[in-house]
Amino acid sequence: MRADAKRNYERLVEVAREVFREQGYDASLDEVAKRAGVGPGTLYRHFPRREHLLDAVMQGWADRVDEAVAASLADEGGPRDLLLHWFEEYVALISMHKGGPAKITSAMGDPASPISTKCDVLRSAGDRVLERLRGQDALRNGVDATQVARLVGGVATVADDGGLGPSDVRRLLEVVADGLLR
After folding, report:
1. Which candidate, 37, 82, 87, 157, has a CA 20 to 30 Å from the CA of 108?
2. CA–CA separation, 155 vs 32, rounded Å?
3. Measured between alpha carbons, how far is 86 from 125 in angstroms, rounded to an integer?
4. Which CATH architecture has domain 50-180?
5. How far apart are CA 70 and CA 74, in angstroms?
6. d(CA 75, CA 18)
7. Strand partners, 154
8. What angle do CA 28, 29, 33 make, to 5 degrees?
9. CATH assignment of 1-48?
């Protein structure tokens, strides 16, 4: 990639991160291009679909997932505490941008999605938590990491769309956790 093209790419990702944080993932891509000081054609050459730009924006975020799951696994409470800690971390991770929970949750388990690699990072992290709980014989049989991610993502989507506060989200996550544990 030429130096000017690389600068444009990096600038578009940086500006998209800001715009998505302010306006959500459905924000105007023309607005992103305008703020980045490039034309729409430049944006679409680098990112033919919105999901490709979203994937680029989320790259640094994937590192935070590893940190979050490590923090959850370090929790010295019981199985319920571990699960709730991970769920709250998960909701925070996918809720960094308005509209994020719905986009990520709908892409979960879809290998054709441009953000499937990011979803795999989340699913794998969640699977680490579930494996710990299976090892403690604390988890119901048949619980699948993708299903759990979709379920918790649904709670995050409702919170995102409805403006629910942390205490309301916590109560919903407690119901989910109680349903998954023996």
Report:
1. 82
2. 29
3. 9
4. Orthogonal Bundle (1.10)
5. 6
6. 32
7. none
8. 125
9. 1.10.10.60
